[in-house]
């Protein structure tokens, strides 16, 4: 199951990264601030994939302990951690040559939810509830 | 006649857009992006030299959107009611190899006599004024005394100018 979870992690991370890049483009074209020097495309893709890989490992470890309740606990944890992580963009101190730091949270906060969203969307294709008990 | 002749030699300086007005403390730091004013300065004629400069309070940038909003609020600079910080010189004198200017610093509608040490360095057709000094924010009722942000705020000013 770990291999399937890692594959799910990579693919959902890549999907979240692509969604974030599209969102960044839309945000930049509509508000004029894409913060591309701070939220670089490579960084966005890497952090999305790494985040989902950590989620995959977390799911695997939880499944060893919780068995049938893994899904409920994991989903709850993933959602809570995603929500807590938005404190980062609010607290971020940008370089002083950035004209509109007020717009930074609006760009990055949705990105913090894309990994969970991608995971929840793709998970049924990779892991069935029965499989986690095996 | 001599006085008129001397006055005509006083050098006026135009502030270039490469200036830097920054502030720092233990918890907060940032810059003011808009600075303007009139600078008349002649090393040989300090008596008629003078500064009258303003900073646009709303141009504050701490690098954090929430902090910017907080800094402009009525608890701190109250940018709506007091949109500018103004410094008007009264006396400029030599202080060792540098200078010091005494004048009125007005923040949040509170005007206080304030002395700023500075250096003046020629650079071709231009020059740069540099100064570093501390402002006690409580003197101008900026924020509440104590708290996370220290009372003394270090201000660094670097103003490149060109001859007018």
UniProtKB/TrEMBL annotation, chain A:
What sections of the protein cross the membrane?
A: 38-60, 72-92, 112-131
Membrane recorded as keyword: yes
Keywords from the named record: Membrane, Transmembrane, Transmembrane helix
What's the protein name?
A: DUF1440 domain-containing protein
Per the UniProt record, the source organism is Chitinophaga niastensis
Automatic annotation (TrEMBL), chain B:
Q: Which residue numbers delimit the Lipid/polyisoprenoid-binding YceI-like domain?
A: 12-162
* Pfam family of the protein (one): YceI
Where does the source fall among the domains of life?
Answer: Bacteria
Coiled-coil positions are: none
- What PANTHER family does the database record attribute to this sequence? PROTEIN YCEI (PTHR34406:SF1)
What is the protein named? Polyisoprenoid-binding protein YceI
What organism does the record attribute this protein to? Chitinophaga niastensis
